[in-house]
Amino acid sequence: MTLMKMLQNYVQLMNISPSQIKLQFLIRSQQIYIPKYIRNVLRTPKTHLQTPIQNGSYIHLEFDDMALSKSSKSNMWPILLSIINLDQLVICDAPPKAFVLNVKGHNVYFGCNSCIVEDDSIEHRIVYLKFNSPLRTNVSFRNWDNEDYHKGLSPFEELLIDICNVFVIDYMHNVCLGLMKRLLQFWVKGKKDVRLTDQDQEIVSCDLKHLKTFVLSEFCKLPRSLDSIEFWKATEFCSFLLYSGAIVLKNPLSKLQYSHFMLLHSAIKIFITENTCQLYNTLAK
Ligand SMILES: [Zn+2]
Questions:
Q1: How far apart are CA 94 and CA 101, in angstroms?
Q2: Contact, 224 vs 208, CB < 8 A?
């Protein structure tokens, strides 16, 4: 008998009006367990789907910042992370990464998670001017060799893992929503010496719209004009960097700017392509 049929029978048998029925008690009376509150139905699953990938598995855990109130800039970062077998990689955005590693944030001195480069400040901006600073290693992290980087002990130091290899650079936030978005913002509304003229911006937007008809169905978003870059999603910055940017930026950018952009385009293409990331990664660096 289906649950619905059983309920209908019960209501008829007991001769009670539907408004009198407390469904949860009725179902429980039949020894069927249902959660008391709807929040328990929606409870975050304690197990996560593992997708097998080369030499390991991928588990997607998502956590993001939540604004505490509309009028305040304070954000809360719920860290919902429980990893039992840490023979894998942890990918997270810069603020939670700094939090769980108990190190300085990405926008202060010694803020780079990969190397010990000391930042400089130019016009109230943190900049990295040195390119060959020594990389952080598991040993240097645990020895606190770069003391200014650490805020305190991290719970991850209790685990037998290579901390620097386990916490990898997050491509989506660093490259798509970071570097690519920033470059576009400079070209659209930056200072005069880097900003594209209104006419060039118009041409780029027009070219992007024309590319729509050539975009394959595998792409989840069609190119949009530059007016709306504040609303672009990570996937749109990704398509721009890897595909459309190389076409639409060729004329408007100076030769030097365009060749810099193409170096970035090529390096990222090498890094994210399965069969070239190992083979040519030195070239990409
Ligand atoms: Zn670095």
A1: 10
A2: yes
CA of 282 to the centre of ligand 1 (A): 16
Question: Cα(94) to centroid of ligand 1, in Å?
Answer: 13
Instruction: Select from 57, 45, 51 the least CA-distant residue to 86.
Output: 57
Residues 21-72: tens digit of each pLDDT? 566 565 666 666 555 555 455 554 555 566 676 666 666 655 555 555 555 5
Contact 47, 66 (CB under 8 A): no
Cβ pair 228, 176 in contact under 8 A: no
pTM of the model: 0.66
Contacts for 125 with CB less than 8 Å, ≥ 6 apart: none
Burial class of residue 230 in the structure, from the number of CB atoms within 10 Å of its CB (0-12 exposed, 13-18 middle, 19+ buried): exposed
Measured in residues, the chain has a length of 285
